[in-house]
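Below is one such record:
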Amino acid sequence: MREQPEQDVFEPIVRGITQSGVRLANERAVLTLIAGIPGVSNADIARRSGLGPQTTARILADLEARDLIIRGEVLRGRRGQPATPYSLNPLGGFSLGVEIGWQHFEVLLQNITGQPVAVTRRSYDYPDPDTVFAEIAADVETVLSSLPNEQRSRLAGIGVTTPGNFGPLLVQLGAPKSVVDAWAGIDIGPRLALETALPAFWVNDGSAGAWRELMAFPTPRPKGIASFFVGAFVGGGIVSRGELMEGPYGNAADLGAIIVHDRVGRPAYLHLIASLHALVLRVADAGQSVPAGSPRRWDWRAIEPMVAAWLDDAGHGLAQAILTTTAMAEIDIVTLNGDLPEQILTRLLASTQAHLDALPVLLPHLPRLTAGLAGPSAAAFGAAQLLLFRRHFSRAWDLFDPEQDK
C-alpha cells in the first residue's frame, strides 16, 4: 500500500526546527489540550503546555478567529483571574472516513469533535476494484450533500482504510485471481483521490481501529493499547505512548496474521480461527445455510451449535495472540471489538478471558482485557480521526499527565 521510502531512516530527525515549526507545534499543543479536556480554561492551558500567558492568549485568539474553537462563559468566583473555558467548535472542521473492508465498505462523515454527521454502508461478497471505487465516490458525494458550502470548505479530506494486503485471503472469500491481481497494482489513497477529487491518505484498518479505540477512552488514556477487531477476518493494531505502530510501509501490528495453535496443536493464522469467515465455514460444513449480509443482523440462534464451538476456538486463539502481542509491545489494555451483536461480543470476550487465565504466563504483567468502546465502525471513524489529528493536533500526550493535577 505504501511505496518503499527512498530516504534514510535517520534523515527526518536530523533536520532543524524552523521558527514557523515551533509556532505550529505550540498551536497544536493548545488545540490538543482543548480536544482532550473540553472546557479547559486558558490558565490551565498555559500551565499544562508550559507556554506563557501572552503566548497562550495569542494562540487562543488565532484559533478562535479560524473557528476551530469556541469559548464559554467566563468562570468567576475562583482564586486569581477569571478563567475562560474553551472547547472545539463542532463546525470548525470535518473529515471523511472510508473503510474498504473484506465484505463491506463504509463512508462516514464526522466533525472535528469526533461526532458522526452522516454514514452509508454497503455489503458485497468481496471487494471488486472495478466497481467499488465508483460506488464509494457516489456515496461520498451523498454524505457531503448534508454539509452547507461554508462547512464543506472545512473538509480536511478522506482517511481511507483497508486491510494491509488484499491478497491470499481474498481467495478464501471466492474472489477470482484477476481481482487479487488488480488490488496488488492499486495505490489506494491516490486512486480514491482521483475518483473523488478530494485529498486522501491510506491507513491500515487495524491501525485505524486501534486509534479509534484509544480516542474513545476517557483521560488519562492508556499508554499502551492493543486492539483486536473480529470481522470477516481479524484486524488489529497497537498504539504505544500516543504513536501508532505502523512500520515503514503501514502494515506493522497485523495482529490477525499472528500464528497461534488450534485445539489439537496445529499452527494456524489467527485470521483462520477467530474470524467470522471461520464461523461461516463451520456453518457450511454442517450443511446449514450460510448467513449473508451484516453479521449484526444474522439469525445467530439458528446456528448456535456452530457458534458455541467457534467462540471457544476463537477465544483460545485470541488469548495466544494477546500474550504474543504483550511480549512484543508493553500493553496496558487489550480491547476486543467486532462486527458482532453485543451479546455475541460479550460471549467472545468471556471465552478469551477464560483461555487467557488458563495459559502459563512468563510476562511481568498481563494487560487488562476489555470490550472495545469504538463499535463496529471503528476503522472508518479511526481513519477520519487520524486525518484530523495529523492536520491539527499534537503528539504530546504527556499534556494529559494526571500527576500534574496533584
User: Anything to note?
Assistant: Residues 94-208+382-390 form a domain with the Nucleotidyltransferase; domain 5 fold (CATH 3.30.420.40). The chain is about 40% helix and 20% strand. The chain has a mean pLDDT of 89. The first strand starts at residue 40 and ends at 41.
